Amino acid sequence: MTTENQSPSETTAESVPGFDMFKPQPAKNAAAEQLSRPVVGYWRDALMRLSKNRIAVLALLIIVFVALIGVIGPFFFPKTNDGTAYENSQNLNFINQGPTLGEKVLVTEDSPVFMDDLIKEPFDVSAPPLKGESVRSPTELKVRGLASVNGVSLEWDPIVGVSGYQIYRTVVAGQPLALSDVVKDASARGLQIGTVTNPAQYTFTDGSGLNPAEKYIYSIAAFVADPATQEEFVASEAAAIEVSLTQTISLIDAQALKPNVQIGETIRSQAHLFGTDALGRDIFSRMISGTRIDFFLALLVPTVSLLIGLCYGAISGLMGGKVDMILMRIVEILDTLPELLLLILIQVALGKGVGSLVIALCAFSWTGYARVLRGEVLRLREIEFVHASRLLGAPLMSIVFRHVAPNLLGVIIVMWSAQIPRIIASEAFLSLFGLGVEAPMATWGTVLQDAAAHFQQYPAQFFLPAGILAATLLAFYTLGDALRDAFDPKLRGRD
Predict the structure, then answer these.
(1) What is the mean pLDDT of residues 170-181?
(2) 67: alpha, beta or left? (left if phi > 0; alpha if psi -120 to 50)
(3) Those residues with Cβ within 8 angstroms of residue 441's Cβ, 6 or more apart along the chain or in another chain
(4) Does residue 131 surpass a pLDDT of 70?
(5) Residue 224 to residue 197: CA distance in whole angstroms
(6) pLDDT greater than 50 at residue 1
(7) Which pLDDT score is estimated for 472?
(8) Domain locations in the chain?
(9) Phi and psi angles of residue 98, each rounded to the nearest 5 degrees, phi first
(10) In 267-287, which positions are buried (b, 16+ CB within 10 angstroms) versus exposed (e)?
(11) Residue 369 needs a FRET pair 20 to 30 A away by CA distance; which of 48, 95, 164, 360 works?
């Protein structure tokens, strides 16, 4: 009987076409009981997922590198002669310098001697005063001696028949200023830094607010005062000279770099990778020193806030009822208050300092922990092991820290890491308004505050520290997002 004539009930395996091509696989019960891959726990799975995120690993390396520089860096700072911390050491010979690996400087005396004003003798003081267009300024203005941040001494030929001289100084910034403009245009002469009322005097020393990184144009204009009305008639043209300051270093500071150096020699100064501020302090060392305080705040404040929020949220979730309602209404009231304004008010009330800064930052940052952890506790309190602990009479805080907290560790780590960049940014913001730590203590915020005062003239002082701050905050935010993805089982298949 052929296959076509067989009924379905009479069909056998041997009658199926191609039966000989399929062979049954013998059962291996021992191999079936073995696991096909190693068992991966929750924490190991989270770390594996985190390690696969290259951007997160790079962010973690940046954070570790910055932290190590902040911890180890101050031990390599040069020692100062007066015992002042290097990051707070002021040097007026190096104010407002740009980033440099070291410049050639001239060694001078520790306490430079200012030149005395010179009077020309003989000089006809009783000569009749010049009038109208005949009032003229000295024909030439010269620099006497060395022009440095310690002082610029000017010299000119005195004019007979004038009442005195007006001395001006302007900064050559941006587009160069022509001497001819200063000679003819009184508005281009800049700030009047002195008035010489003795016409026989032919020298003047300027030693106020000099910056070695800038060029100056000095000008002198003679004037005649009317004895009756005391009205001054100033010459229409002035004598002018452009002056570049010689970079100098005191002998005692130079000997710290080169022990056998002598006055008059030229040596290379210390490197200032981020330049110096308006007081001659090294910005790079201040950033390194400030890393300690900023990272201290970034670790302490979230930890304190976490402990407060964990206890508050766990008690609210475990107690339930009216206690839960009252505690959550308090949190909602605190969340509606303007946090920034309250931070400023607390800092003003407590004064500057690290302690007051910790209190101000912790005052309201715990409410977010309390709200989230309370929701997680409401979920966990219905699990059997929590019921068993309560039936056995375990204290409430023991349940919180021994049973609830370990099961919330993933959520806690994510929230804790996400708050770190917020604390660093808050410290920088408060310091910009002068509400940070006490001077001269350095933090990232105080460095930016000092640089902001001279932003238009020296933008590098602001942008370099701000770049470090931005890169660190970005690294923390990136790592926080990666931790959230790694500890959330719902995102396991998203990679």
Answers:
(1) 78
(2) alpha
(3) 293, 354
(4) yes
(5) 10
(6) no
(7) 93
(8) 132-249, 283-491
(9) -80, 175
(10) bebbebebbbbbebbbbbbbb
(11) 48
Report whether 190 contacts 137 (CB < 8 A): no
Give percent of the chain above pLDDT 70.
Answer: 88
The mean pLDDT value of the chain amounts to 82
Read off the pLDDT of residues 280-309 as tens digits, 9 standing for 90 and up: 899 999 999 999 999 999 999 999 998 898
Cα gap 371→188, rounded to integer Å:
63
How buried is residue 19: exposed, middle or buried, by Cβ count under 10 Å (0-12/13-18/19+)? exposed
Distance CA 320, CA 313 (A): 11
Query: What is the spatial distance between Cα 449 and Cα 439, in angstroms, rounded to a whole number?
Result: 11
Query: Percent of the chain, pLDDT > 90?
Result: 17
Residue 460 CA, distance from chain mean position = 12
Options 3.40.50.2300, 1.10.3720.10, 3.50.50.60, 1.10.4100.10; which CATH number does 283-491 get?
Answer: 1.10.3720.10
Cα distances (Å, whole numbers) of residue 377 to 204, 272, 320, 334, 372? 78, 53, 10, 21, 9
Copy the structure tokens of residue 279.
């007081």
Q: What is the rounded CA–CA span in Å between residue 403 and residue 420?
A: 26
Question: Is the Cβ–Cβ distance between 199 and 125 less than 8 Å?
Answer: yes
Give the span between the Cα atoms of 143 and 124, in whole angstroms.
Answer: 25
pLDDT above 70 (res 9): no
Pairwise CA distance, residues 340 & 355, whole Å: 18
Q: Which CATH superfamily is domain 132-249 in?
A: Immunoglobulins (2.60.40.10)
Instruction: Work out the pLDDT band at 168, boundaries 50, 70, 90.
Output: very high
Contact 233, 136 (CB under 8 A): no
**122 upstream amide cis, omega within 30 of 0:** yes
Q: Which amino acid would we find at residue 256?
A: A
Q: Where are the alpha helices (DSSP H) in 268-366?
A: 283-319, 321-336, 339-350, 354-365
Copy the structure tokens of residue 117. Answer: 């004003």
Which residue type occupies 93? Answer: N
Is residue 269 a contact partner of residue 249, using CB atoms and an 8 Å limit?
Answer: yes
